[in-house]
Structure to design on (80 residues):
């Protein structure tokens, strides 16, 4: 589906409903008949699918927490 900028501006809510309902997968907005932008639904992946995505991708060193007090002091006291 393609609409011009004025149509998109005046009917924005309607365009969003078309996307949400699945009647349209994307909507192209054009200026003087030339496509400028495409509107699509935002990725709505659930939090549970995001948690753990880096599992097994890296390892933390054994001494990871060794300097916690020094790091906290630098962040809270402004000491660099």
């Amino acid at each position: 589906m393609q609409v011009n900028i004025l149509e998109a501006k005046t009917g924005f809510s309607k365009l969003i409903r078309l996307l949400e309902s699945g009647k349209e997968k994307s909507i192209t907005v054009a200026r003087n008949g030339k496509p400028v932008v495409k509107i699509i639904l935002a990725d709505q992946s659930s939090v549970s699918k995001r948690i753990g995505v880096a599992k097994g991708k890296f390892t933390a060193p054994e001494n990871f927490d060794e300097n916690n007090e020094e790091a906290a002091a630098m962040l809270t006291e402004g000491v660099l």
In short: The beta strands are 2-4, 27-31, 34-39.
